[in-house]
Design a protein that fits this description.
The protein is mostly helical. It is built from seven helices and no strands. Helices cover about 70% and strands about 0% of the residues. Helix 2 packs across helix 4. The longest helix has 20 residues, at about 95-115. It is globular and about 40 Å long.
Length: about 120
């Protein structure tokens, strides 16, 4: 079964919008942080534009999320094994945005350390 590319774009856009909201950022602020225009970011969030890998990386950096997680959503990379854990951490609304980001950074640092050894 093939996934409709429009569905992939809508899912990616919804995911970016949710990450932006969880980070408590306006469209304008995220656009500024990522170095893209407000209209372009709005089109990405609505699933109307397909961002390049470079734009996804800029958005990930601005949102302080893994670029790989956005690549997976965009269909650039295959599903990563830790994505369920990341989604669980991000869904913990009883934690502050800062607390969730710290947990994600700690987890990613452990992964990076293990890859280095």
């Amino acid at each position: 079964m093939t996934t409709d590319p429009r569905d992939v774009l809508r899912d990616l856009g919804a995911h970016i919008r949710e990450q932006r909201r969880q980070a408590e950022l306006s469209v304008r602020k995220l656009a500024d942080l990522a170095g893209v225009s407000n209209p372009y970011l709005s089109q990405i969030e609505r699933g109307l534009k397909r961002p390049s890998a470079e734009i996804l990386q800029q958005l990930a950096r601005a949102l302080e999320v893994s670029a790989e997680s956005l690549y997976v959503r965009a269909g650039i990379l295959d599903e990563e094994p830790d994505s369920d854990l990341m989604a669980t951490i991000r869904a913990q609304h009883d934690l502050t945005v800062d607390q969730r980001q710290v947990l994600i950074r700690i987890y990613e640092s452990f992964l990076a350390e293990n890859d280095a050894t």
